[in-house]
């Protein structure tokens, strides 16, 4: 198997490089073909990898970066004021062919701005979109956009649908069902952008457009790809994660009540733990920036070791599926 090389922005995220490096070490141990380049402050990173086995250390490189993009910085500041940031250098490694993907838990707006500047978009794509897998009753749904584009035109939504469909196919879904997220399934429902996007999608050859879907339909698995603007998508994603965490906490509290509750919990808790693990946000962490001339994966800023591992795994899948090239090959057929 050929090597996969991923550049890691080791300084991004809410908690600094410790959990990022731990996740990177775990992925190296689990995937013999994986090579990682950690970008950040060398002295700090060298200390964190000092106990790594020699065989794994041989597949890990450290590249120096003197600047860090803060989580609250404006994208323009990261773009113009920090040419030596760990985020930018990781992206430049992808641009220069020294890595096949970049993974960062840093500032989302800065990562998008730098990605567009360094890697550029694919021909025919105006804006990249963030996409991630959302658990449903039927399996998973690819939801986009998740926050990269707050205001979207009908043409943007159409492009998102095309990119989401190709991404779902790369992940093994045959003829993905594509839907627009809306406040109702009737043709008269929705704002002007959604209605115009529906008209464009209805006339698209080679795209399996199934119409509008509501939020509950998304979780019933009525579509394989659900498209919306980034404002709606980000609220839906964060609300879903919060709801899953709240329900899990409530159930655990119920089983810590009286004697009967604890007895019932002893029987049910193993199954509930399995369900909780399956739905845990960390397991599904890692949103892909579709539409770029390179692979960029955005991890939650608050992701722990397991969550950042999931983001690296998403990058590995997209490398193996050669996703940007597959997407490029389909755009001429599907874009008007």
From TrEMBL:
Annotated Gene3D superfamilies: Isopropylmalate Dehydrogenase
InterPro entries: FA_synthesis (IPR003664), Phospholipid_synth_PlsX-like (IPR012281)
Coiled-coil ranges from the UniProt annotation: none
Superkingdom, natural source: Bacteria
Pfam family membership, one: FA_synthesis
GO molecular function, one term: phosphate:acyl-[acyl carrier protein] acyltransferase activity
Keyword NAD attached: no
Similarity comment: family membership: Belongs to the PlsX family.
Quaternary organization: Homodimer. Probably interacts with PlsY.
Protein name: Phosphate acyltransferase
Organism name: Pseudomonas putida (Arthrobacter siderocapsulatus)
Taxonomic classification: Bacteria, Pseudomonadati, Pseudomonadota, Gammaproteobacteria, Pseudomonadales
Gene from which the chain derives: plsX
